[in-house]
Amino acid sequence: MMGPSGSGKTSLLSIMGARAQKQMRTEGGVTFNGAPLTKRLKRRVGYVLQDDLLYESLTVKETLYYAAMLRLPRRMSHADKLRRVDLALTALGLRQCKDTIIGGFFRKGISGGERKRTSIGVELLIDPSVLMLDEPTSGLDSTTSMHVLTMLRHLATGGRSIIATIHQPSSRLYQQLDKLLLLSQGHVMFYGQAQQAGEWFSRLGYTLPYGSSLADFILDLASADVAVPDSSRSGSDGAAGTPAAVVGGMDGVTGAWPLQAELCTCALHPALLALPSQLLIQEHRWGAPYLTQVALLFRRSLRTRRFESMKTQDIYQFAAISLLAGLFWLQAGKDDTVLGARNTLGLLFFISMFASFRSLFLALYTWPEEYKHMLKERASGMYRLSAFYAARTLSDLPMDFTLPTAFFLIVYFMGGLRYNAAAFFGMYGVTLLTMLVAQVWRAGLAAGQGTGRAAGDGAGCQSLPCLGRCRRGAAPHPRSPSPLRPTTLACRAWACCWASSPWCPRPRRPWPPW
């Protein structure tokens, strides 16, 4: 598929591959050989995005390994899946870089062409009947683009239908195409053999200039950069030079064939010719079992953090904050007055909130990129959402509990809280539970794409354990009535509501009010 920017190439490809956004309004349906696009058929369709969404810390072989273990059917043995990975590495020419990390902006990895071939290899593992690629040559040089397109043509000779969108191919790339679908402003300008496009438009009066590239010429024509010949002009001069004028004159040309008839008569991969009943019977056998999904995602999540250790900066930061908090609330827990109880309440609140909000703020840096990977893999049917949620939660526990535990130990003893096992382990358990709630809620933020309103609700709920600790944990019991008793809280809540109501009498204030 070719066309200028904004012609609808990516939109059409996403609709055909069942990857269209929910807010996109479409009409009609997508069928394969007359059968509706079910989940089983969707797993037989490979879809490669324009952006190579790969984990930077994984190697090429590890990327293909986890994709194979999650996507290939469970009836295949582990040895067969490993053999499929080796075949993909050999077919795509990635064996020499199989142990090299993907890399990114801050860490050197494989080249751009190897990244693109790795993305294609993730989809080729399932042996798709139809492979769709959104601008596979985007951001690559001419030589690398030629290698990628030559590889795709070699894969097409094996019985696969490959559909790709190309923005601006060179003459060599255009020679690799079998058929061409030219789009302009959402309309079809041409569909047929790619090498016959020049003859097609010459019948309409658009002759290819001598020495010009056919790919550049038809793109200029789709962008309305080529003037409409006098023989093709309509009565209105306003339609001259527009792609609509070309589209309107196509139906009357001898030799044209309808697009719908061509799509209905084209041959498909034999795997798509199975009966719908057989597809429904085998649908549950796809993918790994639930516990296997959790285990694989857990291992992959740990491997993606192989370069994320406890940095010296984080250790110094926690040590400095712990000492400052300990000095600020130094021996505050030994004061049995009301003021001491309030100071201890502030200390308990700070301990829980610091540990919790540290876990929450990590989502601002990690989850936006993680969410893109999850959307891509979920669209391919790799795993359940709950499996991703559970694996991500378990993999975050070691990093989230080590430094906050050291912070808790320093602040607890410097704050002068109770020196007995029941109070210490009780408060430590509730603190860990609060951090766990924050960590679980953070994982749910990515799994469910939480909003800012949900973030505020979750942050407010995390202050509740502090109240329970003040009642039964490490806070000293003041001699005066506790301000945290239910009756006191109810009276204060009623007083606040009454003071904010319009019926509450207000005293006269002197003028001016300041």
TrEMBL record:
Residue ranges annotated for the ABC transporter domain, each copy included: 1-210
Location in the cell: Membrane
Signal peptide range: none
Protein name: ABC transporter domain-containing protein
UniProt keyword annotations, A-Z: Membrane, Transmembrane, Transmembrane helix, Transport
Source superkingdom: Eukaryota
PANTHER family reported for this sequence: ABC TRANSPORTER G FAMILY, ABC TRANSPORTER G FAMILY MEMBER 28
Spans traversing the lipid bilayer: 315-332, 344-367, 388-415, 421-441
GO molecular function, one term: ABC-type transporter activity
Topology in the lipid bilayer: Multi-pass membrane protein
GO cellular component: membrane
Keyword Ribonucleoprotein tagged: no
InterPro entries: ABC2_TM, ABC_transporter-like_ATP-bd, ABCG_transporters, P-loop_NTPase
Keyword Membrane: yes
Pfam families, per database record: ABC2_membrane, ABC_tran
Annotated organism of origin: Chlorella variabilis
